[in-house]
Amino acid sequence: MNEINDVDEKVYRLLQRIPKGKVTTYGNIAQKLGLNPRQVGRILSKNDHPIEYPCYKVVSSDGSLCGYTINGKTNSKTLIVKRNKLLKDGVIFRNEKVSKASIVAV
DNA sequence: CCGTTGACCAGGC
DNA sequence: GGCCTGGCCAACG
Hints:
The protein is mainly alpha-helical. It contains four helices and four strands. Helix 2 packs across helix 3.
């Protein structure tokens, strides 16, 4: 059972606000909500809602993909899923990283 | 209570 | 651009 508290809900709201074809960073969200970047990652890893919320639209500050937990597991497989979702959204990739042009601030 | 562990980040080289 | 370091701070055992 994942209970959604206030902070979590704010994070998820911001996710839904990211334009199609764009992504944002953990640090950006953190700053927006006055949190530590690590706390944002923690929230997403513990309360991932891969269907309802586009948590895949969050990448590291340098554009590289991290984590992406599905059903409590994080591995190369889930990482591929994340990349595919981003590609499908029209996000531009530069090697294995998201191009800076696709990273937007919320 | 303490040490370890992260879906991080900025700065220095 | 990549690698390393220090800082960060809640959660866990």
